[in-house]
Each structure stands twice: as C-alpha cells, then as structure tokens.
C-alpha cells in the first residue's frame, strides 16, 4: 500500500510517500481502508522530533492519529459484522509510546475495535475525520466549563478545529462569546460561527482590551497556550475559570500560581479534564449526533491528497490554516 513516512526528523520535506506492507489485524484490531486522515499540530511536532518526551517515536514511522474509512478486515476475536462499515477512529498507534509504526497517513491503517465509532449517514468521511479527536475533546471541555447563559466566554485559537466548535457550543449555551485569533480571515470565520466580539491577539494589550469590553470574562477556553494563554489570565474576572487545553503557541499556558490565587481563578489543564473512567467513545458518538442533527458545523479549511502531506504540514506550520486540515485517500 502507499503510505507517508517520516524518514528522519525535520521539516515537512522529510515526509515521503512510498510502498509499505499492508497492515494485518491482530487480536482486538481491525484494518480500515482509509478515506480521510486528520492532520494535527501534534503530527508536525512528531515529525520534527519536538514531542519525543511524550511520544518517543523513532523514524521511520507513519504519522497520523485519526482516520475514517471502511473496515476491510478484523482480527481473530473481533465481530466480523464490522467489515464493510463506515467508521471513524483513532489509529491503533495513537497515543502509544515507544514508536508509532503505523499511523493514518496511508491507504490502510490499524485501529482498535473498541475505539470504532460508526459514522451516521448524515456525515461525510471528511466531517467525521475532523471529529475523531476534536469532537470528543470539545465536549469534555464544554462539560467541564458548564457555561451559563449571559456569561462572557473568551475562546482563544478560535478559528482552529476545536476553537470553531467551542465558539458554537458557547453561543448555543447562551454565552456572550469573544473570539481571539490572528488575522482578518480567522476573525471573520469566528464571527460567522456566532462570536459576538472578536479580537486579534497579535496586537499588544489585547487581553486588557477584552477585560475593558467585558468587565472580565467568566470562562477562558484557551486553545493557544504559551504567552497567549498566559496573557488571557488578565481577562478573567475574579472567581472565573481558565481551561488550558492547547499548546499551538508554544506549550501549554504557564500561569503563575500566585497570580491565579490572587485573582481567585480556577485553572484546569487538558490532563485534568477527564478521569480514567471517562467514556471517550460515548463523547465521540455524542459529537457525531450533534453534527448529524445540525447543531454543530464542522469547519474543514483545507484538504490535501496523500502525496501532498508535506503541503498539509506546511499549512499548519504557517498558522494560515482554518479549522481542520485533512488528507484524503
């Protein structure tokens, strides 16, 4: 089969398309003939070698943590009724340390049977691919935020995959949404999705202006991290909540414990959103249902064929991408 491999750590140019052996489903696994593969910021970090502390992959490996497609074969202990079904799933290698040998940038991928979510007829393979990670994560964030009508909610990285969904969920919950992003195109997208106010966080003093406009927000949903996430703390009203789930701006937001205590702000990190008992599959299925019912729009800003994986990584690295970025197979 054709697959994209990281042959060595480096820039997008190290992604090479070639022929590799077809995967074979082992116990508890299935082989998915891939229709679409999600391209995440994490993938670009893995490719560069920057995420080795958490995901110690060694080249050569096939990147990609989420796919949609049709189940082609199943392992010896898996229900054969899955064969032929349209599914969305993390890859079997997703989140596994010690090497990520078979990811989603390929014509076929391995997945674990217990992570398969059947795709509703109302969803395309592309929509479902964009929801594999973002759908379940966005609902975990929204459940923890418990947004109330009338609250001011600040969403950073508001034009990204998670941000576009959070703007919509916060608006639906009755919040007054202020969306922060970089550049006119991203701000226009956030406004179209329901943000009441938008602000460009490339401009100095942006967080202070948010506080002036709102009197202090009740909730910050921070998908940017880094200095942007830390600056967002200045926009939070006393007794407020900051959920720091993103690191696209250079690591998760490093907030000062004394400042947090002085402002009486609760900070929740990505790793504190859930418990070992969290039912990720149920969250995934809820996300499918929301989109199928028309309650959420999935924003897919750009798609690339498999042999243009390097261009997909370049788009993400340039910060020009809107919504989700996908490979189509």
Describe the structure.
By secondary structure, this protein is of the alpha/beta class. It is built from 9 helices and 15 strands. Helix 2 packs across helix 3.
Identify the overall geometry.
globular
Number of helices, counting only DSSP H or I runs of 4 residues or more: 9
Query: Which sheet architecture does the biggest sheet show?
Result: 7 strands, mixed
| Estimated structural class | alpha/beta
User: Low-confidence segments, ≥5 residues, pLDDT <50?
Assistant: 95-100
Beta-strand content estimate: 25-35%
> Helix coverage percent of residues?
25-40%
Write the layout of secondary structure elements.
Layout: E1 2-6, E2 15-19, E3 29-39, H1 41-48, E4 66-74, E5 86-90, E6 108-112, E7 117-118, H2 125-145, E8 152-156, H3 161-172, E9 176-181, H4 184-192, E10 197-200, H5 206-214, E11 217-222, H6 226-232, E12 236-244, H7 257-263, E13 266-269, H8 280-292, E14 300-305, H9 309-317, E15 324-328
Question: What tags apply to this protein structure?
Answer:
about 325 residues, 15 strands, alpha/beta, 9 helices, globular, 6-stranded parallel sheet
Concise structural overview:
Strands 3, 4, 5, 6, 7, 14 and 15 form a 7-stranded mixed sheet that branches. The protein has a 6-stranded parallel sheet with strand order 10-9-8-11-12-13, with helices on both faces. It has a two-stranded antiparallel ribbon with strand order 1-2. The chain is of the alpha/beta class.
């Amino acid at each position: 089969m054709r697959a994209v491999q990281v042959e060595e750590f480096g820039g997008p140019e190290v992604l090479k398309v070639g022929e590799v052996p077809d995967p074979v489903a082992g116990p508890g696994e299935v082989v998915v003939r891939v229709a679409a593969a999600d391209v995440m910021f994490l993938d670009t970090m893995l490719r560069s070698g920057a995420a080795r502390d958490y995901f110690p992959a060694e080249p050569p490996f096939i990147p990609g943590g989420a796919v949609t497609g049709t189940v082609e074969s199943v392992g010896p202990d898996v229900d054969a009724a899955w064969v032929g079904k349209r599914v969305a799933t993390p890859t079997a290698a997703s989140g596994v340390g010690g090497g990520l040998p078979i990811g989603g940038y390929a014509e076929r991928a391995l997945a674990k049977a217990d992570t398969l979510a059947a795709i509703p007829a109302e969803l395309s393979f592309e929509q479902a691919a964009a929801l594999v990670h973002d759908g379940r994560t966005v609902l975990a964030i929204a459940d923890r935020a418990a947004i109330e009508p009338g609250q001011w909610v600040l969403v950073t990285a508001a034009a990204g995959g998670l941000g576009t969904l959070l703007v919509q969920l916060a608006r639906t919950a009755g919040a007054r949404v202020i969306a922060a992003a970089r550049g006119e195109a991203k701000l226009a997208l956030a406004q179209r999705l329901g943000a009441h106010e938008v602000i460009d966080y490339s401009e100095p003093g942006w967080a202070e202006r948010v506080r002036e406009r709102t009197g202090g927000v009740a909730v910050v949903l921070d998908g940017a991290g880094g200095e942007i996430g830390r600056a967002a703390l200045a926009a939070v009203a006393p007794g407020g909540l900051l959920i720091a789930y993103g690191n696209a701006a250079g690591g998760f937001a490093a907030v000062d414990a004394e400042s947090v205590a002085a402002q009486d702000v609760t900070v929740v990190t990505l790793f504190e959103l859930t418990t070992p008992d969290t039912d990720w599959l149920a969250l995934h299925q809820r996300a499918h249902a929301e989109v199928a019912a028309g309650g959420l729009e999935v924003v897919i800003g750009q798609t690339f064929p498999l042999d243009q994986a390097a261009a997909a990584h370049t788009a993400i690295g340039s910060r020009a991408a809107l919504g989700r970025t996908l490979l189509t197979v």
